[in-house]
Design brief:
The protein is mostly helical. It is about 80% helix and about 0% strand. It has one domain: Monooxygenase. The radius of gyration is 16 Å and the shape is elongated.
């Protein structure tokens, strides 16, 4: 039962950013995305991935590899769409 709780938690946290990706792709609105938060989250998950590799933990590696890709996608979309916003008229 404890392992099941861990697997459910890993699945939920791994896919938690998917709604943000869908919203961002549909609306191209990134005003509500905090870059410092997504940078910290992506770096933190990347470090968990490195840790999982170091201790040879398949579940840690798998969930964090997917999380890095998903969280990194949110970060990339935010940076991309922010760079395309027109400068305000003066």
């Amino acid at each position: 039962m404890i392992a099941l709780i861990g697997y459910v938690a890993a699945c939920l946290t791994t896919v938690s950013a998917v709604p943000q990706i869908i919203h961002t792709v549909r609306t191209r609105d990134v005003r509500g995305i905090s870059l410092p938060m997504w940078i910290a989250l992506t770096l933190g998950v990347a470090l968990w991935l490195v840790y999982g590799i170091a201790i040879r933990s398949g579940p840690l590696v798998a969930s964090n590899a997917v999380s890095v890709a998903i969280d990194g996608s949110v970060l990339a979309l935010a940076l991309y769409y922010r760079s395309r916003v027109e400068a305000p008229a003066s």
